């Protein structure tokens, strides 16, 4: 899968389709949305896989846009259906 951050139009569509609003998601909600464990996510990062961008909130706090995580899952599921 070749992940690229969604455009504003794609963000709006994926949020509307999921009946969600744009929020920042921390680690726990990130795992709930993606169903990907922290060790797997970490491994993918270190393998250089394209993943949704984190937003640095402070020196020890980061989050993801909900639309980015939903888009990632959408692309992942679409790729798995093709294989």
Strand tally, please? 3
Rounded radius of gyration (Å): 13 Å
Number of helices: 4
The percent range for helix content is 40-55%
Provide the spatial order of strands within the biggest beta sheet. 1-3-2
Order of helices and strands: HEHHEEH
Low-confidence stretches: none
Structural class by secondary-structure content: alpha+beta
Q: For the residues shown, what is the average pLDDT?
A: 91
First-to-last CA distance: 11 Å
Name the beta content range.
5-15%
Largest sheet: 3 strands, antiparallel
Sum up the overall morphology in one term: globular
Overview of the molecule:
The protein is built from 4 helices and 3 strands; from the N terminus they run H-E-H-H-E-E-H. With 83 residues, the chain is of the alpha+beta class. A hairpin with a 2-residue loop joins strand 2 (55-58) and strand 3. Helix 1 (8-17) packs across helix 4 (66-82). The chain is globular and about 30 Å long. The termini are close together. The mean pLDDT is 91.
């Amino acid at each position: 899968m070749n992940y690229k951050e969604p455009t504003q139009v794609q963000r709006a569509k994926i949020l509307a389709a999921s009946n969600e609003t744009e929020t920042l998601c921390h680690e726990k909600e990130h795992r709930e949305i993606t169903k990907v464990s922290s060790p797997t996510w970490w491994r993918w990062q270190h393998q250089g896989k394209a993943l949704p961008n984190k937003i640095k909130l402070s020196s020890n706090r980061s989050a993801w846009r909900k639309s980015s995580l939903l888009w990632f899952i959408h692309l992942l599921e679409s790729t798995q259906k093709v294989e």
